[in-house]
Amino acid sequence: MGEFIKLLKGGNKPSLIAALVNLFLGIIKGVAYFFTGNVAMFAEMMHSLGDAANQFFVFIGSALSKKAPTPRFPNGFGRVVNLVCLGAVLIVAILSYETVKEGWHHFRHPAEESGGILIALGVLLIGFILESFVLHKAAKEVLHEAGKEKAGIMAIPKSVAYLNRAKPATKLVWMEDLVATSGNLLAFLAIVIAYFTGFNALEGLVSMLIGIMMFYVVGRVFLDNARGAIGETDEEMHVHIGNLVMEDPHVTDIRSLEVVKEGEFLHVELVAETDPNQSLAYLDDVRDHLIELIMSQKNVTKVTLSFDEEDGKTAWKHHLKDTKILDDEVNKP
């Protein structure tokens, strides 16, 4: 039990905050829907509850993924977060379907004007503020993981460019809360417009739009985590680590190099070519230096390195001048 609690402390904090915020919003939106009967409020309730469940699973998965390797599982548990995310998106997919279905029904058969407009607008305003806060926190975490600390109030737009460098859990929270913030705003506008124009079918249309946005997140999350569960190469770090190794004067070429994502972490397998006339003891010192260098790179937790004799053929084709290298955070000594 103590180990499990310790693991939870290392879980993805933005996902836990997002889960608690969305659970609170789902409850108050459900209460508001009960009193107003507003279908846009129903869509937002389903959205918030789906996000809460998804982000809570992501938090648990990100915590369990940090469990140390065991003799039975020598590669560690990094991909657990991908497997948990794949399961969690099923919940969101079901809620997305229900949201679209309810919106379509209301669009075809719009009800009379919904009651309690001030209650609905007040709840959506609270939701917009809280979701914006969580989105800002997630954006700052994205920038932190990319080595860009100073962003301030511009964290959200700046984080877009660095989203692919974020950890799976952080990326998921960012995407879901962007949709959630947009959904609150759309539902707010739909209620106001329907109230002043009498076009009540708009609420059903917005409900379908929110459901479709949820489906988009489901698709993106599924594809990202399916690749992670299978074992995806980190192309940028592949080139970066290869070039670091090639800078060593004792390495003449790279026979093979794999940089595989294991959840939030990277496992590196490298076969480097070198001068066969060097002594085994000397090459052992070179190997220790290279392993220490690679292990110092961002998110690298395991390195397997071996040497082979120079064969006179060039296998490593990448060059520093032709390749976009990671920021200073990744290039730290």
TrEMBL record:
InterPro entries assigned to the protein according to its UniProt record, in alphabetical order: Cation_efflux, Cation_efflux_CTD_sf, Cation_efflux_TM, Cation_efflux_TMD_sf, SLC30A9
Primary localization class, coarse: membrane
Keyword terms, alphabetized: Membrane, Transmembrane, Transmembrane helix, Transport
Domain Cation efflux protein transmembrane: 16-226
Pfam families xref list: Cation_efflux (PF01545)
Regions crossing the membrane: 16-35, 77-97, 117-135, 178-198, 204-223
Annotated membrane topology: Multi-pass membrane protein
Protein's cellular compartments: Membrane
UniProt-listed NCBIfam families: CDF
Protein name per Swiss-Prot or TrEMBL: Cation diffusion facilitator family transporter
Organism: Ureibacillus aquaedulcis
